[in-house]
Amino acid sequence: MTPQRESRINQVLAARQNNITLVMENIEDPRNIAAVMRTCDSVGIQHLYIVNYGQPHRKKWKYKSAKSAAKWLTLHQLTSVEDCVAELRQRHYNIYTTRLAAGAVSIYQTDFTQPSAIVFGNEQHGVSDAMASLADGNILVPQAGMVQSLNISVACAVTVYEAYRQKQLAGHYNHASLPAGTMEKLRHEWGLDDEL
């Protein structure tokens, strides 16, 4: 491993955020998951939860963009909304669903500096009622057009980059966020320890 590669991996690990995650609920198109994976990696989100109670778990990702991003993320694949929420609660996350519904709050009025899990739902049906009933709030991307929806990967990118902006201003990227044990585990998984 070159010194430049080692330095890059260390920089990425230092910027990984432990207090924000995304949840993909029953996403049908793997290309959408691939795009979300790339977005997670780009803003330092380490954990991605994939809840799918309609399709089998994936061990491999078909699309090159997903394969390249997946190796840098920690993926949690579950088959139950309740199990997913229980895991998120253990990590002390506020759970926000993304639905076009009365009472939804703009992402620009949501405090993403607090531990947050953001749930994006199925392309056709959105976030399930079961997930929404267990969440702490509902957020949305404000829009001014006639079509009141965005592609899931676009909505995800807009939302997490607002979270990224808030977290940068709060200084969250100025120090390591992941626990030391998690960082060492990732160093090993990413092949860095093998090269030192």
Keywords:
8 helices; Alpha/beta knot; seven-stranded parallel sheet; alpha/beta; 196 residues
Q: How would you characterize this protein structure?
A:
This protein is α/β, with parallel strands linked by helices. The protein has a single domain (3-187), classed as Alpha/beta knot (3-Layer(aba) Sandwich). It is 42% helix and 16% strand. It has helices at 3-15, 30-43, 64-70, 81-90, 129-134, 152-169, 180-189, 192-195, and strands at residues 20-25, 47-51, 74-78, 94-98, 105-106, 116-120, 137-140. A seven-stranded parallel sheet has the order 3-2-1-6-4-7-5, sandwiched between helices. Helix 2 runs parallel beside helix 3 and helix 2 runs parallel beside helix 6. The radius of gyration is 17 Å and the shape is globular.
Biggest β-sheet description: 7 strands, parallel
**Count of helices?**
8
Helix % is 40-55%
CATH evolutionary superfamily = SPOUT methyltransferase, trefoil knot domain
Global shape = globular
Quote the distance from N terminus to C terminus.
9 Å
How many domain units? Answer: 1
What is the tally of beta strands? Answer: 7
CATH class: Alpha Beta
Might you state the CATH topology name? Alpha/beta knot
Radius of gyration (CA) equals 17 Å
β content, as a range? 15-25%
